Here is the input.
Amino acid sequence: MTPDLLVHRIPLLLTMDPARDGSELGALVNAAVAFQGGRVCWIGESVHAPSAATVLDGSGCVGLPGLVDPHTHAIWAGSRADEFQRRLAGATYSEILEGGGGILSTVRQTREASDEALEKALRGRLLRLRQRGLTTVEVKSGYGLSPAHEQRLLRIAQEVQDGPRVVTTFLGAHTVPAEHRGRREVYVEQIIEQQLPLCAPHCEAIDVYCDRGAFDLDEATAILEAGQALGLKVRAHAEQVAYTGIAEVAAKMGACCVDHLERLDEAGIAAMAEAGTVAVLLPGSQLYLHDSAPPVAALREAGVPLALGTDLNPGSSPVWDPWICATLGCLLQGLTVEEALLGLTRLAGAALGHPELGLLREGLAGDLVLVRPPPGEPLSAASLVQSMGGTRVARVVQGGRIVATEL
Here is the structure.
């Protein structure tokens, strides 16, 4: 059968498939990729490429799998630009949250927004992310914090599927809403008995923010256990502001990933390594919050897989560009170029529990991004990461179709 689409004459193709050349990036030169029925059907040298109904020239670009963002809070309403100014003046993120700002400010504005406004905002954000090469984006709830509002956010996120592929995560345990302050146990009970049963049909995973000013270890564990009992994959915001022990607990529950990890300890690292839990690093929030780096060297030594996310949200990481996160991951957190690119692709897919995403292999997702390094730079992996936001995404193929072109 004739392929639907052929992308050929790609000078450097990073498949992220070690079976290709024995390296982690799976590099091929003068390569081509063919797509049929939304999936990759052929990869090889351009001189041996099959004919196809549509042919796209990849000259001048580096090819990679469609990028995967494993951590965003992309559905919200309102703005927190005023809090950005307060942080510049010296206020901490935790102080703002504990004073009724931060997440609680966004919750108020999100609850007041119409379905139409939320859908429009989310669609715009997702399409902008796709222009930067993302073909899969995780979207969390967490700005509703009531049964009806959390379900609403997840339902809207599920319905917006005309941009990148959306993977939804329940985060009703983002913080305690204003109406339940001083009655934390009542809100935890509401999450377990009302929010989760209502929201589980609209998401793949459960996440919890276990930290100072949010939920303690016992509360977070009970919430994760309840979500897991409903068939949801386990995730956690772990060890960001203060050490809690949730990374170790989540890993022992079989979590596909735990995220942030600035204050991760040796026991947490060991548990993650044993379970194969992916560490999702979020350098955007580290930068915005002037925080210390996660223990990347210790994670690497233990063999814990490392993924990267934008943590796109209105307050602590209003970061739109995964390529900037790759650069920051190297500069602020000590990643290598190879680790940064794997963290945006194959290992980001693994963090979501979708190992079929983020790599180019026959039979898997037909997602490909063609990227131009900055002018004058060579076609290399290092050129894509070194320049802060200097790469240009020339084409995005998602599900075997060309869905975005260079602006």
